[in-house]
Design brief:
transmembrane, 339 residues, hydrolase, 74% helix, mainly alpha, Glucose-6-phosphatase
Amino acid sequence: MEAVYVQGIWMAESLQLRTKSQERLWLIITHMGDPKAAFLLVFPFTYFLSRRAGVAVLWVAAVSEWLNLVFKWLLFGERPFWWIGESRLFVNKRPNVQQFPPTCETGPGTPSGHAMVTAAVWWVVVSSLGTFLYGRTRSLLLSAAPYLLYVAVLAAVGTSRIFILAHFPHQVVVGSIAGLFLGIVLSRRVPEGRPLLFFFSCSVGLLLSALMLHAGLLHLGIDLSWSIALAKKWCSRPEWVRLDTAPFSSLIRDCGALLGLGLAQYWKPGGWSLPWAPRALSLAISSMGLYHVNRLPLPVHPPGLFYFLFFIKFVLAPQIVMVLVPGLIHLLTHKKKKD
């Protein structure tokens, strides 16, 4: 793997030097490809276009991110920003590369979570859009256009991860392939209308299985905190190492989102039926609500309190999108019609 890592470092250097003027664009793209964006951006946008597709996005995002965590624990994988220093291969000729605020993620590198979750979630989006376009136009050419967008999105997100030294190229490729497979498989069975017990069982099951795997690996003498130590050691700025990028944060997010999805469908089975204009208004208000919920500062000490509040935050996200905001809009527009 050493030769693969070395080539990846030189590729990142070349990419940074050649596209330095597009630095802001790469940072925006890597932000949009963050697994968190699937829950906070893609989910509400998709939900108000198609309820089934929105539920599928949240379902696929949670399961694919959980599997990404499991794969990372089992496959390990270095990250470029720490491997440059740890390898000691660049003492005489150090690469001309720099780090950025989203560079210093603390989990192992293989496979790329950004690429994997993006590939899985966006497959739901483009396949739904492709089916819709074909149903309306019966044009194979027009219905194939979303899949070209899919390839472009994956290429852009993967390139951004290489640019900021968060991943090696092969980690992006592996993540994209795994995500594509998961998107195809998971989108075939969408848990729309399933009972609350199903989602509660899924949430608890994902949490307990991950904790059991973690305990088992520790029992075998495998220190799963190795990547956190390296991230803290080699990150350019200590404040760039954040608790919300830790492996357990993604696990808590997935469990919270699944429980929230179950609760939302329990409170309002079938969802609110809204015309297009109220839907657009619901989307705008929901997006603003999720933005402010996401920006709420959480105490990082003690970590248990952080994870609990982080869990609550993502339990609330589906409630805001599926129940609270559309319910309020329905109430207001219904009263207006009656008046």
